[in-house]
Amino acid sequence: MAFDDAEKNGVSHIDRTISAASTDACISQFSPQEQKQIIRRVDRRLVPVLGLLYCVSLVDRTNLGAANIAGMAKDLSLTGSRYNLIVLIFFIPYVMCQPPTTVITRKLGPRKFISAITLLWGGCMVGFGFVKQWEQLLGLRILLGVLEAGFFPGCAYLLSTWYTRYELLTRNTVFYLICSVLSAGAGILAYGLMQMDGLSGLAGWRWIFIIEGIITCCLGIVAYFLIVDFPEHASKSWHFLSERESQFMVARIEMDRHDAIPTTFNIRAYLSNAMDLKIWAFAAIFGLTTTNTYAIAYFLPVILKVGMGFGIAASQCLVAPPALASAIVMYGFAILGDKYHIRGPIIAFNAILGLIGIPLLGFAKSSAVRYFGVFLVTVGANGNVPTILTFSFNNIRGQWKRALCSAALVSFGGIGGIIGGTVFREQDAPKYRPGIETTMIANALVLVGVGLLTIKFYRANQRAERGEEVIEGQEGFRYTL
After folding, report:
1. What is the tens place of the pLDDT at every residue in 173-215?
2. pLDDT tens-digit series, residues 249-295
3. How does it sit in the membrane (predicted)?
4. Nearest residue to 223 via CA among 313, 114, 296
5. Pick from 479, 469, 293: which is nearest to 385 by CA?
6. Mean per-residue pLDDT, 388-398
7. CA dist 463 to 391, 392, 454, 466, 478, Å?
8. From CA 187, how far away is CA 381, in angstroms rounded?
9. Domains by residue range for the chain, with CATH
10. Average pLDDT over residues 117-128
11. Is the separation of the CB atoms in 403 and 103 below 8 Å?
């Protein structure tokens, strides 16, 4: 096929080259040192940019907790269950809009799609600072859910297309770690912005939304020039990689799992992937984990202030140390996980940390012991987000199947957000027993789910070794335990 004909038929030069040449030749054209340099270049360009954008995404959807104790509750009359409803309503459009977003990301390209939605939700956040009634805030939260729905699954899917199975946990973790470290200072930033109270006649809590929204808009514009597209199109992303280097990255993925280039999209084939029950098992485990992460994000400042008796400044700032501790621990586990090809034991260990930390947070009499429980819960919950993502991507094949899996995980993550955003109720202060019990049950179910999947995968690997089964349609493919 001539190059011009290939372009007319929607087949890129990379597609054509990979099909014509062996993957060995594409890889061996670079020395081992040159290969490491190319991968490091991808690391430096791809992971930090996505991590920074995810940080503002998470801060923008969870800064309600900081604004709430900064005066928003009083100014907007957030009595009874109104605050919980505002937290909850975000996740309904967030979950409903997930399934098509990874398809849109694949079709439009991540550079255009992710930068556009970032700019739009930043503008929405600025609007939060000018609401007059709590119902207006409710409407803006619905819009925010629609706009943010495509971000996280798009990022997770994009990362999975660039790295081999046993490189992915470290990259997913750094992506999430950047978010954890930077968002750890969100409470401190919110406290600083509160000091603008009265400036231009606006309350301090309004400035939290306005300034953070402006920051998001600026990053959305910059992201258009920094985000790179899928590896087969990398040579077109502002000269990020040469065509030979793009071929090398695609060849690595092809050698690892034979699905580097997506097949033509077909809605029936795409949806047929939903028949694979393990996708929903991964999604359920992810949703149980996010029940904990969102509960921490939305209610930790409130628990510190109301439940433990800290002042506003201390409540805003004491959120940071547990998040920083979780970043250190999750990075250490990521290195071990990729080196020894393990996923399930790490997830189980983090769930056990939650089962130890949550009772300390809920039932200990000393504030110091309760705060130590916050460390354990935060480390366990945050550490499991990138690990579960990687556990799922390591054990499926196919670009569109991975796209569907990404959407399913984040949709269930949104359901976890609905649960985590409603179980800590004002009337349950200061012990918050229903929230404590719910998050404990969630961690226990994570242990059960991971245990069952590990048994299933171990038995399938044994059958494959005996030649009785071909896993994921590829000879030699084995599940990662």
Report:
1. 999 888 878 877 787 888 899 999 999 999 999 999 999 999 9
2. 989 988 888 887 777 888 888 888 899 999 999 999 999 999 999 88
3. Multi-pass membrane protein
4. 114
5. 293
6. 94
7. 20, 20, 14, 5, 10
8. 19
9. 45-260+274-466 (1.20.1250.20)
10. 96
11. yes
